Each structure stands twice: as structure tokens, then as C-alpha cells.
């Protein structure tokens, strides 16, 4: 005889927690996105939106799914029910702390939601350096006309058409950048971790281990790599000395990719022509850094990926992944712990 409804054992409650505090309004989750998450999660999950860290810690022990910037080391031990963490961040080097790495919690990122805008930011830096825009803005503040200084300008004004750009890291950002460089008539060489079919937006494709071929020949070298044990400090004195003296380095990956002391020396001694930097080893960039005052350097405060739709797009990715999670499907942007991204 089948048991009646009243005799069925109660189903264990499942909890989803959204905790995304931020001091800058643009990086807070909009109410509309929060409501879409709630609709997608019901009736399977009870959804929590804690307003403070104290409230977050109260619900964390029961959380099966967590949408958060990350999980602090001191809190990992409290997340006994956690099975999946999604972060709005594209890079996860600050998310994968030691304690979390030793759990079986699945981690997904929002990689790709800012690919277009980072590519555009990279190109803006490139134009600022090659067309004298950065110097012109500085001169504008002094009401100084600099036409007569063109012959002495370093780096000189350049035409991008026909130049060779080397992109280390041909992920979503690297591909979007390649498309824009090709539109400007540039040659594009890309470096990837594993062999793959060459995309149409790239003229030549190299596998990791052959970076020197790109470093030696590039007029513009762009770093679009994640931070891993293999990429930390990958651009140092040896690589900078092998670049063309007329070359420009642009870093929109992670600050730790570049050995900054070597970069400062390279710029001072003319090993390379200039640099565009959106990321730094220490952020905010210390006021004592020589990079602030170098005329051949364009500095931006890690804003390459910022745009008004970033958080809604990240939420949309999370919602899609939530459907995959409930159906037992493969999650988009799931992190490979061995690779670190």
C-alpha cells in the first residue's frame, strides 16, 4: 500500500545565498537581477539576501549555492553545506584561497561578460600612446600647444595599420581585441595554452612555450593572461630586453604578470617605447611608484572591465548556470583547480 502524502518524510530545505556588498553602486546587484534570481530559484531553493556580514554568517552554514565575490578563508570552514560558488569576478586568483582549494565546492566565474569592454579599453590605451593623446591631455591642463615638440616625442606618433600585435592569452578578451586590431589593419599573433584551431581573427597562433617568437617581433605586446603559478612574473627583464625598442607593452590581465621594477628600468633606459597599464602588483598603485609620472606610460585604475551592465550580465550568467545546476548539466566557466582558472 502506498503511503499517503501526510506519511511522506519532509524534504530537506535547500538554501541559496546572494551576498554581494560593494561600496561602489555600479558593482552592486540591481534589484531587477535579484528578483530574476529569486524566480529562477523557486520553489527548489529558499533565497537569502543578507544585508550584513553578520547576517551572512548566520545563513552560510545552510547555503548549498552561493553567489558572492568570494569566500574568505576564515569562513570556508563554516560553509559545510556549500556545493557551488559563483563569483561576479572574471579572474579567480583572489577567490581560490588555500582553504577553498581543499574542498569539493564547485567554483564558476563570470569570465567573458566584460570581454568587449576590456578589449575596447585596451585599444583606447594603444591609441592614447601611439597618437599622443595622453600627452595632449597633460598639455591641455597647462594650455600648452605641443605641435613643435613632435620631432622629439618618444614614443613618436604612429600609424597602427600594418603593425604587429602579439596577444598573450587568447581567451574571450584576447579574441575580442584581435577582432578590433584586424579591423585597424594590424597583424595579429596570439599565444594559447594548448593547441587549437586558429581562429579567423588571428594571423598566426602559437602554443605556450613559444612566447619569445611573439615577444621579439611584436610592435605591441598585450598581456591578457589570468594569474596562475605559471604566469606570475612572466614578463621580467629577460623578456623586456628582447622586445623591440619601439614596442609598447599593455597589461590588462593581472598586475603580477609583470615584474614592475624591471618595467620601470625598461622604460627609463629605453628597452621599450611605452606601456599601458590597467592592473598593478599592488592596488591602489602606491603614490611613490615612478609609473605615475612617466610620460611614456598610461595608467588607469583597474577599470578596464567596468561598464553599467556588468552586474546584470553576471547575474544572467549565474541564472543560466543555476538552471544547468538543477538539471545536472555542465556549468559554464567552471574553474579547473589545477590550472587556476
Describe the model:
The protein is built from 11 helices and 12 strands. It is of the alpha/beta class and 341 residues long. The strands form 2 sheets. Strands 8-7-6-9-10-11-12 form a 7-stranded parallel beta sheet, sandwiched between helices. It has a 5-stranded parallel beta sheet with strand order 2-1-3-4-5, with helices on one face. Residues 1-10 have low confidence and may be disordered.
Which shape, going by the Cα principal axes? elongated
Fraction in helix = 25-40%
Give the class from helix and strand content and strand pairing: alpha/beta
The end-to-end distance, rounded to whole angstroms, is 53 Å
What is the rounded Rg? 23 Å
Mean of pLDDT: 93
| Percentage of β-strand residues | 15-25%
Query: Could you give the order of strands across the largest sheet?
Result: 8-7-6-9-10-11-12
Major sheet summary line: 7 strands, parallel
Low-confidence stretches: 1-10
Order of helices and strands: EHEHEHEHEHHEHEEHEHEHEEH
Number of strands: 12
Q: Treating each run of at least 4 consecutive H or I residues as one helix, how many helices?
A: 11
